[in-house]
Write a structure and sequence with these properties.
elongated
């Protein structure tokens, strides 16, 4: 049976730009996990309609606008605070393969409607559906403001909050006609995302190293200018001059032409190097956040398993509850 997968990532202010770039496909050519031929199928969800992705939407601007209007905290927001939560809503690959385009669109619309009613439409930064990756999914990004106007993701996404969110999301999607169950696939998608981001970084670093190797000849040729022989000569009324042979003059002119030919490319490479360095730093922060999320989810999973074992022990110690438990378990086996 298909399962509902709803993963939560907590993002700091420095994460907004790289998440925006990924969601809006601003760096499409460098992203290994995207099929560009299907990117035209991506879309943005709003409260009224489905619209194309607008690359001019700025997450930092939307965040500041929401904070200015709804933040009631007495202190300024800390620089290391969680300023955005991004939920990744999806299901199994087999689920999407069994649905037509209309049903897939309905699946994401139903989840979107539930999430804006659960968290508040006024806190939403963006909601984007990606159809150009291995499995269709929705990125639902919002500012984690509490009912009293505090910025506190921990309050919203504590263990009980996550359990309640998954339970209500599952109930909502089942009410809309989808035969779907809860998911145990939590850690695997996060680990996969971390591996994919690492592969993207590896590709970018390799690309930069290849370009730098292409320009090593420039440094060698420029240094060879110092080896060109010349002599000085004093010319009456004109001061001192440098005299080169025709061969040496031609060599120097060729070096100058070589340098001018690659000057624009070298400047472009320098800018690209700065851009890639910033992207590298952004991705490292994102990967570190994913690792923290994995640790937190592992802890929550262990706590839930322990609770489950305690509940099972309580049920088995009570004869009436034990009989009811066995009856429900046998009924499920008969249905499958």
């Amino acid at each position: 049976m298909a399962s509902l997968i709803c993963l939560n990532n907590k993002n700091k202010f420095c994460d907004l730009l790289p998440i925006q770039a990924h969601n809006q496909r601003e760096n499409l050519s460098d992203d290994l996990i995207v099929d560009p031929s299907r990117s035209n199928l991506n879309y943005r969800l709003s409260t009224e309609e489905i619209i194309p992705i607008d690359p001019t939407l700025e997450y930092e601007y939307e965040y500041n606008k929401i904070i200015k209007k709804f933040y009631k905290g007495q202190r300024a927001v800390r620089k290391d605070a969680t300023v955005m939560c991004s939920l990744r809503v999806t299901s199994n690959k087999s689920f999407f393969e069994a649905q037509d385009a209309t049903q897939i669109q309905k699946f994401f619309r139903c989840n979107y409607n539930f999430l804006i009613s659960y968290f508040g439409a006024e806190k939403v930064i963006d909601a984007v559906v990606h159809m150009d990756e291995r499995i269709p999914h929705m990125h639902f990004c919002f500012v984690p403001l509490t009912k009293d106007g505090r910025l506190c993701a921990k309050t919203i996404f504590d263990r009980k909050g996550l359990t309640l969110l998954h339970a209500r999301a599952l109930a909502s999607i089942r009410e809309n006609g989808f035969n779907i169950t809860k998911s145990d696939e939590v850690l695997k998608p996060l680990k996969m995302a971390e591996d994919l981001k690492r592969s993207i970084l590896t590709k970018e670093v390799q690309k930069l190293e290849n370009k730098l190797n292409e320009y090593k000849d420039i440094d060698i040729k420029v240094k060879s200018i110092d080896d060109i022989p010349f002599r000085r000569s004093k010319i009456p009324f004109r001061g001192e001059s440098v005299i080169l042979t025709d061969e040496n003059f031609s060599q120097m002119r060729n070096i100058a032409r070589f340098g001018m030919t690659f000057k624009n490319d070298f400047d472009k490479l320098t800018k690209e190097n700065e851009h890639l360095r910033k992207r590298y730093d952004d991705h490292v922060l994102l990967i570190n956040n994913l690792r923290e999320q994995i640790k937190e989810l592992t802890k929550n999973r262990d706590e839930l398993l322990l609770e489950g074992m305690e509940m099972l022990s309580t049920i088995k110690s009570n004869q009436s509850l034990s009989e009811l438990y066995e009856h429900v378990k046998n009924s499920k086996k008969q249905k499958t």
